[in-house]
């Protein structure tokens, strides 16, 4: 206090003096210097000089010179100029001091890309529409939940991307169901993108280079899903220099290393993440949860080999694993068990060979494999349970990039996939009172030819036209029920079983998938784009839960389940302002999907060999408008987006008395949230620290509200006559994070940083669902909130360069 | 296998991990739709006392206490031999009983027909009564549920586990109900200074309420009846023909040392009834997790309208056989040291007529209801 008073006094005096333009006459020491543009060296006229965060009134003259008098002591000087990043420094004044400043022009600054609609980013090269690129560096700036950098959660701050609610498994992109999105990590598919039933995404953030999200204009090299593609690429390890980074957080610990083996030729990437939750249960959980175990881990590796300038070879793997154990009380339905454990995970491998024939032609050959397995077990009781399921995906792809002319590029190739599914095997080879159940394995092939051609016809008009032909074969060995004609498939209407030998085709489907996008420049910084896509899906998730369980069954198409087919139209307008500092976009879309699946009322999907008796096939439609304004550069950056989006289903089969939902009328899907507003703000005053805020608002999701109540056996139950006829309360949330980089501020090989995060800053109890329970006082409605209070976390990250 | 796990399992993990997740009651819930449906609850059993048909119009309010009974309907059940049994309306209204002596038989098939005064007719599918195995064994074990605080009566108690042998035939479905009779000494409690009116058979409030609470003794034997609140069903789909061991059927509170009268009922139900109860369980028992299945009432499951096939009918034609067993649970044994029962304390004074007063009554009658009886329960030994 004693120190502070004279300074306040002096500061007041200083301003009086300077405002009266008699500063020159004072005997106080001066700070003086020149302010110039860092890139051109031009002096900047009219730059403001602030002292201790207050305007001094002093500005630079035509030569960029300034002079300001301050009392002896320590001062914070800030030099700012419109369109330039401000400069701040702390300076101890003992005598007249020269301070020359170079300011960086914001427009010439490299973009700190957090999110970019590739549409404008690669404005000239590509007409792609509905494509978003996220850099991991950008994602790391967003506030996190419990300190875990989370790809899936971060994506939800983008327009058009949402989920059923917090803690839900998977994404809904432009009105898609979770299984309609293809998620790739280094070209191997991920079937369950989350750990802990949806709380955290499976991707170890350190191993990721960037993500491309294709919400609309999906290139023809991608196929097999009806809606969108999330293409995650792993880092290519540095061949020159050893690097290491990692972090210690509340939920998990991470480490990643890039290890050059042969300089400029061979290097290895290893990244791992391990959860550390068990101690929380042991120490903090109430007694009844002390035996709960919940662990997960991820390991990503990549070997990168470049024998010469014409060839590169990479081998990558991605392993994820989850393990849980829960005490008695809860068990598999219709089995008595004291304790249930289960684990699940991915084992993914990919090999890539790139060969450069010439600067105009190169080839990529890749082979990939994904094994997603789940196991549920209760070994220590007479009712032993051992339930397994798995998906084995194997793919071979060859593709070529050919650029005959500067304005003409092509990508074409051939791809073949084989699926082997074990939909569920209970107690095979296990001695137990619980019987052995084996749902027959499913085998299928998906073959495709694809070609994309991108042609800049004129400086204003670019066309990207693609075509994919996919053919699908459901293969034997297997069997299939034949039901009485004109009667609904049920156990009572089975006439016989058709059996198929090994290698025999049981069902096949195929079709062309045109993909077109075009770009037309209306003005120098304004473009308009149009896109149309057709996509087919032969492989789907069977789940009637609000969000799918990790153990939900995947099923390939057969004679009862027709492939889904989506037609997607979009139109967009893009504009950049102020030399790309600002970017605005408006995109609209409409999607129509045939053969989407739902389930009859009270469907039994548990180890059901005749799953076709439980299905209803129908139609989906989704439409929307996404408006986004971004400031991409400068001390303050961020975005605001507003989305209006709707998603509906119509489910009515040939036997509507059973095979209909909502009487066959259109109804809102679980993820139909019409209004969404997202805001992200990043403030980076210096390279040493930054602040971020994110705000999310959306209309509450639909739920089924009762029409009344009735009594059975002296107990009351609600009447649910309509699906999704009401909505939960609106959702909104504000998050905050503060990142301090290299707190020691010294240049050294080991660089630490701290991230302090508050998720749900104002602690809103956002509803996930509304449900009903019978109490002694009658039926009551309840609301479930998942993250119902602010959550504070601190993470330590390090880099060793 | 999406439905394979009880969703509560996942909910527990989530709640366990994220102690800040929460469930709040909605006090101002507003319905967006209000509709009434014809509700038919028809039970045919090999226990003569359990066969009855109840016809109501469902309430269009979630919170309403009563459904409107449908009176003066024609109700009959026909068996596989074409023998028709007519059900006649009794008490309460809207409930129809078979003539004395009617009893369902295991192996017989039944079909229900209902005609309302308004002309609507309903018919059920044919349902066959299945045999039910004997309840072999019941095990009670003292267990504490640590999610409840020490002062909560739900924390300490006896879990009741059941053993039985499933039949060799496939497709057996079970349902358990239990009843507990607690002998009571006090038959009425008048709060706020109220007095018991022996003509109205109810408490009468004074004009100016006070804090006084008066309890009245029963004028004879009287028992309070409590029943299971939750539905409990099981299918032999994964354990056909096996001895099913350790199925939890109830939980007995540790609210006294006294013996506990417990009557368990084991029913063998049809597939339709199992599906129906299962849907009720998913709607209100296992709801409230991240993984809920769609809340849908299973309309017209095995009862359909003939006059208007599109009509949504609520209810079930439930054909079942039943076995009962009475157990007296000794609540004084195998209690861990330090565990004491939470004995409920009834506040207030017990009313007694002043000595020598003439015509004064201080004992109130035991009024028959779903939750109270003066009839000595079967097997009562105390």
Automatic annotation (TrEMBL), chain B:
Pfam families given in the database record: DUF4249 (PF14054)
Domain of life of the organism encoding this protein: Bacteria
Entry-linked InterPro entries: DUF4249 (IPR025345)
Name used for this protein in its record: DUF4249 domain-containing protein
Origin species: Aquirufa antheringensis
